[in-house]
Amino acid sequence: MSLTGNPLAGTLGQAVLRDVTLRDGLQLTGKLLTADHKIETVRELLRLGVPAIELGSMARADLVPTMANTLEVVQALTPEELEKCWIWVATPGHVAKASAAGARNFQYCLSASDSHNQANIGRTTDQSLAALPEAVEYARAVNGQIQLCIATSFTCPFEGYISEERILSIANDPRAEGTADIVICDTLGQAVPAQVASLVARVRDESPARRIVYHGHDTWGLGVANTLAAIQAGAAMVDGALGGLGGCPFAPGASGNTSSEDILFATRPDWLTPVVFGELVVLSEKLLAELDEPNRSKSAQGARSKAEVFDWVVRS
């Protein structure tokens, strides 16, 4: 039997990867990337076929310095490129500023727990929800779309376990009307596949019809398993970062994102070939080396093995 080609292509449905390297991936790094380097990275990811990218955040530059040049990146990209790019926002003002720069896809983030929302955004969860309708209107005014992103959907670093009912109450809140997607976030990477599958399925079945997005971290080594569980339960988009880079500066215990390489190797989307995978591995290695960050991707490490009869090994 031939080992060439992509025999698993499309076996996990239509879920797409959103690479969040340039936002969540960079939040805890000690080094900054120039706007030009970020623009080059966006374009290289798009060239390789990555269907969606989170390119940055409107977080305050004094709190998250690595996001300071986000609007410069937005302004440099074409409308066609920006159609595939998302930007993290937390207030209506963020949406207004980002849309003026050209952004059209917005991820409006709040936390299921008040404690983390205060640490991350400086207000209660209810205050964030109260401002959401205005953010939706700003997005609609530019024919854009906005996601409701629920951080700490499973556990909070300050309050512990978060109930499914809490997530459903936010997803079903009338003030979330007009959001295109619900992003369920395992911010601390403490969830297990059964939890992820249960919550994704309940939000899918018990809240207004919207695309379900899953955002996971690999703190406890279950990032890929949780992502697969989310896809099988109905998630249509999943987040990852090159090399497992990243974490939340306002959530003690949150480590790197689930690796984009690992998600792609596991799910084998139709556009992914061994050659493209190899180019992603090289892109990731160069970026991580510049940032002085370790490569946490098991698939990227496997791609550098000596098992050269396996098509997915990188030979250059």
Automatic annotation (TrEMBL):
Residue ranges crossing the lipid bilayer per the database entry: none
Keywords in alphabetical order: Lyase, Metal-binding
Enzyme class: lyase
Domain of life, per lineage: Bacteria
Signal peptide segment: none
GO molecular function: hydroxymethylglutaryl-CoA lyase activity
EC number: 4.1.3.4
Keyword Lyase: yes
UniProt feature coiled coil, ranges: none
Positions of the Pyruvate carboxyltransferase domain: 15-281
Family, per entry: Belongs to the HMG-CoA lyase family.
UniProt protein name: Hydroxymethylglutaryl-CoA lyase
Protein's organism: Paenarthrobacter histidinolovorans
